[in-house]
Design brief:
Elements lengths: L1 E5 L2 H11 L3 E5 L5 E2 L7 E2 L5 E2 L2 E2 L1 H15 L3 E4 L5 H16 L7 E4 L7 H8 L7 H28 L10 H17 L4 E10 L5 E9 L2 E2 L8 H12 L2 E14 L7 H12 L3 H13 L1 E3 L2 E3 L14 H14 L35 H4 L5 H16 L5 E14 L2 E14 L30 E13 L8 H11 L7 H10 L3 E4 L2 E4 L1 H13 L6 H15 L5 H18 L5 H11 L1 H4 L20 E6 L2 E6 L8 E2 L13 E5 L6 E7 L2 E6 L11 E4 L11 H8 L3 E5 L6 E7 L2 E6 L2 E4 L11 H13 L13 E5 L6 E7 L2 E6 L2 E4 L11 H13 L13 H6 L14 H9 L21 H8 L24
Parallel strand pairs: 1-2, 1-7, 7-8
Antiparallel strand pairs: 3-6, 4-5, 9-10, 9-17, 10-11, 10-16, 12-15, 12-17, 13-14, 15-16, 18-19, 20-21, 21-22, 23-24, 24-25, 25-26, 27-28, 28-29, 29-30, 31-32, 32-33, 33-34
Helix pairs in contact: 3-5, 5-16, 5-17, 6-15, 8-9, 8-12, 8-13, 9-12, 9-14, 15-18
Amino acid sequence: MNIVVVESPAKAKTINKYLGPGYEVLASFGHIRDLPAKDGSVDPDHNFKMIWEVDERAQKRINDIARAVKGADKLILATDPDREGEAISWHVLEVLREKKALKDQTIERVVFNAITKQAVSEAMKHPRKIDHALVDAYLARRALDYLVGFTLSPVLWRKLPGARSAGRVQSVALRLVCDRELEIEKFVAREYWSLVASLATPRDETFEARLVGADGRKITRLDIGSGQEAEDFKQALETATFTVASVEAKPARRNPPPPFTTSTLQQEASRKLGFAPAHTMRVAQRLYEGIDIDGETIGLITYMRTDGIDMAQEAIAGIRSMIGKNYGKDYVPDAPRRYQNKSKNAQEAHEAIRPTDAARTPRDVRRALDPDQAKLYELIWNRAVASQMQSAELERTIVDITAQVAARNLELRATGQVIKFDGFLTLYQEGQDDDIEDEDSRRLPAMSQGEKLRKDHISATQHFTEPPPRFTEASLVKRMEELGIGRPSTYASILAVLKDRGYTRIDKKRLVPEDKGRLVVGFLESFFQKYVEYDFTASLEEQLDKVSNNELEWHQLLRDFWDDFIAAVGEIKDLRITQVLDALNELLGPHVFPRREDGGDPRQCPNCSEGQLSLKVGRFGAFVGCSRYPECRYTRQLAPGANGADSATKLLGTDPETGLDVTLRGGRFGPYVQLGEGNPETKEKPKRSGLPKGLAPDDVDLDIALGLLSLPRDVGKDPESGEMIIAGIGRFGSYVKLGKTYANLEPGDEVLNIGLNRAVTLIAEKKANPGKGRRFGADPGRSLGDHPDKGGAIVVKNGRYGAYVSHDGVNATLPSDKTPDTITLAEAVALIDARIAAGGGKKKKAAPKPKAAAKSAKGTTTGQTAAAAGPARAKKAKAARPEAADGKPAAKIPTPRKASSKAAASKSRGKTAGPAAGGEAAPPQRKRKVAN
C-alpha cells in the first residue's frame, strides 16, 4: 500500500479516484503545526532555533496518517507545488519521524500543476526529494514575520495605546494606503479650461477638435488657467475660418495580454466581477481542486498561486487547435505565443493560471458550477485562450486643423481610432481601473488636406485637477507587485488583515485608512523608518528568493536583519509618549489639523481660542484635546467631522431652567450633547449625554438635546412589582431597567418616548431569556438540580456556540432535539456522564518539571514541540531585565511577549492566535482594564 498525503479532503477524494487500488490518499487539512504565540518560539540567541507546536485539530489527522504509514511501503508527499506546499510536506515528514512512524518506507515528493488524471499520473512517474532550499526560504520568512510582529507590537502598545499590531509586510502595505490618503489631503486643486470646437465637413459629418496651439505656442491641458483667457480664445474661434491642415492615418497593433498570474487574476476579478482578492482565491481553489461533472470530479484550472506567465506546450497546442475550430484560421497566429517575465521568484517555474482543457468551454461547465465559480472560470478561460489569439489591427487617425482669425493662427486636433481586425478583442479586453482613461476609440469622418470645415459651436469648459484616487484592492495589489512587496500567496491575506484589525475600511470599493492605521504608520515612519521603506521590504523579498534558489544561507539572512532591528528597538525603549505625540503631530498634521477656511491656525482650540490642539492618548486610543486641560475640556476624534459630527462646538440654545448653554460636540466616542462647561476649580464635570444609535447629529435640536440630558428618566411603575422602570443610555446603547434587570432597546424603540407597555414587554422578554442581547460575560444559567451521584448543581446555559449543560467544570452540548426549556435533570446527567467518558472531564494540572528538565530545554532544536519549550530561557530573560529609574523592572522590549490566556483560548477554539497567514504576525492579546 502507498500512502499519499495532500492538503485538502476535496483534493484527496479526487486523487484517490485517479490512482485507484494500491493507494490511500489522506489530507493534512493544510499546515499541521505552527510557532506557538509565546516568548521564545524563535530564539535569536541560539541561531534562531524554532519551536513548533502541533495544532490540536491536526493531532487526530496526524495520528491517522502515522497509523496508515506504519503498514505502508511508500509515503508520497503530494502537497501544492509552491513554497507553502513544500513546507507542509516537510512538517508532515518531521512529525512522522518524531512519532517514529517511519522505518524502511520509501519517501517521495511529487508535484502536479493541475488535478487531472493525466497530470497526477505523470507526476507519480517523476518523484523527487523535498526541496530543502524552498523549506529554508519558508523558515526564514516565518521567523522574520514572527520576530517583527512579536517584537514591534509590544512597543506599539506601550508607546501608542490603542494600536493592535505591526507586521513586516502588512505595515508596508498599510503605508501605501496611508501615503495615498496624505497625498489627497495635501492636494490643492488647480483650475484649467478646455476649448473644444464642434465642426462639420462639407458632407455634414460632425466631429470634435480640441485647441492644442496658438500663434506657434503649444497648449497643454493645464495651460489655460483662467476664465478670462478661455473666453478670449473662444471669441477668437467663434469668428475663425477652419481648414484641414493634415490627415495622418497610422496603423497600429494591439497584442493580447499574457494568461493570468495570481496578482493579475485578483486585479481583473476585482475590476470585472467585483470580487475581493480573498474571495477570488477561495473560488479559484475550488476550481483547482475539482468539480463534479457528470459523476466525475475534474480539476478545471491549473494551480492558482503562481508568478509564471507561460503555459505548457501541450496546453498551447490545444488552445490553438480550439481557436482555429471555433473562431477561424485568421485568429490563429503563425507561431505560438511564448510569454516570459523578468522575475527570479521560485514560483515562476509554475505555469500561468489556465483551464486544464481549453475544449471545456464556460458554456459546457456552467450547469455544474455556482454563479461565482462560473464567472471566474469564464474569466480565466477567456484570458488564457485570448493570449494565443492573433493581435488586433487598428488604425489611429490624427487630423490637424488651422483656425485663421485676424492676425492669429490657432491650431486644433481631432483624433480617432478604428478597429480593422478585432483579433483577440473578439474574446477578451483587459479591464481598467476607474481612474485610467481609455484610449479614444471614436471614428472620424473622411477628410482631406485643404478641405474647409464649418463651425457648429465652440465650448469653453472649466475643470479642476483632481487628487490621486484611493487604492482599490485591485490597484493596491498591482502596486505591491510593482514594488516587489509580498508574494502572490500573501496579497489576499494582507488585505484581510488590514481590514480585520480595523486599520482600513472599504468605502465605494476604495480602501480608506482608519485613524488607528494612520497612527501606526506614522509611528513606524517616525521611529522605524527603514523597516517600512518600500525598497527595504522589496530587497528582503529578493534575499528570500535567493534562499529558495540556494544562493543565500537562511540563518545568515536572519542574523543580518535581527542585529539591526533589535538595535533599533532598543533605541526607543526610553522614548516618552510626549515625544511620540510630537512626532505624530508633525507627520499627520494635514489629516489631524486640516486647513481652516478663514486661514487661521488649524491647531487653535475652537472652544477657548487660547490653547493649542494636540494629539493625546487614553485607554481607548488617541484623540485630539486642548493644551489648556483641565481649564478647557475640548476633545474630538482624530479626523474632524468623524461619525458625522462637526468637530467644533455647535450651540443649540439655552436651557430654560439653568440658563446654561446646550451644545453639540464631537468626542472620542462619537457625537454628544453637553450642558454648560462645568467648574474647573471644583473639578465638577458638565452633564453630558451620547446620541442614541440611529440619531444623526444634524437632527439634534434643543428639545432633543434637553431630553437626552434629562436621562435617565422614569417610564412608569411595573404592574407586578410596583417598582419604577427607568430608561437611559449606557455604554452599550439605550436600555430600560427594572431593579437589576437591564433590557436593550430594539430597532424602532426610542429612549426619549418609549412607553410603559413596551418597556414591560422588553423587561419580561429579558427575564425569560437572560442571554438575549448579552454583550459580555457568561450566562449564569438555570439550575436543573443536583447530580444524583456526585452532588453539586447541574446548570443549563446559553453559550456562544449554543445551549449546553454544565457540572463541576464539565460542559456538554445539548442535542438538536433539546432546548434549555425542555431538558430534564436525568437527560442532563446522561449528557454529562457521556462527556466525561469521552475524555471531556476536567484536566489535571501537570506536575512541575524538575530544574534539570528546564535546563535541557535550552538545547531544543527546530522541529521540537512546545512541550519542550524553554522555561530556563524565560527565567534567564527575567533575571537579565534592567531596572528603570523608579526601581521597577523596565519594559522588556527585545524579546517577544507571551500570549495571554485570551490568545490561548482563541487557539483552542480553532482560531490562529499566532502569526497570521500571508506573512504577518498576529501579536498576543494584552489584558485590558474594564471601566466600572
